[in-house]
């Protein structure tokens, strides 16, 4: 495992044990950005999770976006668990100290779906500016109307897909039913391999602005879990299976604690030595 970036300070860790979800909020001083990261699906639960995505249907209207529909499970995972309140609290604390810095939201697999909803939430409900969303191997999360709204509201979004990764192909896309089918938002960057004899190179292709470029990941069959758990040569999976319950040192209680359901929220104030941006940026803060 790589060492944390120099100058990166974690200020919030949220573990929702009931739904097996984790999120981190930190500040990367060298990037002058706040980073919100969502953990993806555990490797040993991916198969069951993928099977669920074959039959899940659009079943909720997104508020304030006529015609937009989203996947209930992903929407619920972000909006109706302990994850969202913890993130918003950490964002406000970081904002108070650092001022108007960029916000970068990222996640892999189901974590990518949650990252997308988080990026949209920060823009729509908290007037965020300078927001960026970068996801890896995320599934489709809404219909074409939702994808259109999303691309307008969160234009600085990139979805990285890899080879024959199965998850970006789910839930399925049915071009003959454009009003009902799931539809990716743009912009996709597709990783694929090309070979010259014994040499194999990975290529990045920047796809069109439709969200469903037929020359990118849709040009191949989505049948690989192996391509889902490795991106840019980095394994995005746990080495061994384990439950979501974690054991904590009693000394961590000073940073937070568990609720009655065993969900954990650990918080720390950003470094008091951090340099705040010029005060005139406060008037144009990322969040209201």
Automatic annotation (TrEMBL):
Record has Hydrolase as a keyword: yes
Classification via SUPFAM superfamilies: alpha/beta-Hydrolases (SSF53474)
UniProt keyword list: Hydrolase
Top-level taxon: Eukaryota
Key word Hydrolase present: yes
Pfam family, one: Lipase_3
InterPro entries membership: AB_hydrolase_fold (IPR029058), Fungal_lipase-type (IPR002921), Sec_MonoDiacylglyc_Lipase (IPR051218)
Signal peptide: none
Domain (Fungal lipase-type) ranges: 35-172
Protein name per the record: Lipase-like isoform X4
Lineage, highest ranks first: Eukaryota, Viridiplantae, Streptophyta, Embryophyta, Tracheophyta
């Amino acid at each position: 495992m790589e060492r944390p970036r120099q100058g990166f300070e974690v200020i919030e860790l949220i573990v929702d044990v009931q739904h097996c979800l984790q999120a981190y909020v930190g500040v990367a001083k060298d990037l002058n950005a706040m980073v919100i990261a969502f953990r993806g699906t555990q490797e040993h639960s991916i198969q069951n999770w993928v099977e669920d995505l074959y039959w899940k249907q659009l079943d909720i209207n997104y508020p304030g976006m006529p015609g937009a529909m989203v996947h209930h499970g992903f929407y619920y995972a972000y909006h109706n668990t302990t994850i969202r309140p913890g993130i918003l609290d950490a964002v406000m604390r970081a904002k108070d100290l650092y001022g108007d810095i960029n916000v970068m939201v990222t996640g892999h697999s189901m974590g990518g779906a949650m990252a997308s909803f988080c990026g949209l939430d920060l823009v729509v409900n908290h007037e965020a500016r300078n927001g960026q969303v970068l996801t890896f191997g995320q599934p489709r999360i809404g219909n074409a109307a939702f994808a259109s709204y999303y691309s307008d509201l969160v234009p600085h979004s990139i979805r990285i897909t890899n080879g024959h990764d199965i998850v970006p192909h789910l839930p399925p896309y049915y071009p003959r039913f454009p009003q009902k089918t799931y539809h990716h938002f743009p912009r996709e960057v597709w990783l694929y391999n090309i070979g010259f004899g014994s040499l194999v190179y990975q290529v990045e292709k920047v796809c069109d602005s439709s969200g469903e470029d037929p020359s990118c990941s849709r040009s191949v069959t989505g049948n690989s879990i192996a391509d889902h758990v490795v991106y840019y040569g980095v394994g995005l999976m746990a080495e061994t299976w384990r439950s979501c319950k974690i054991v904590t040192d009693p000394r961590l209680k000073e940073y937070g604690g568990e609720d009655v359901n065993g969900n954990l929220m650990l918080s720390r104030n950003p470094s008091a030595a951090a340099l705040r941006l010029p005060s005139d940026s406060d008037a144009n803060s990322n969040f209201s």
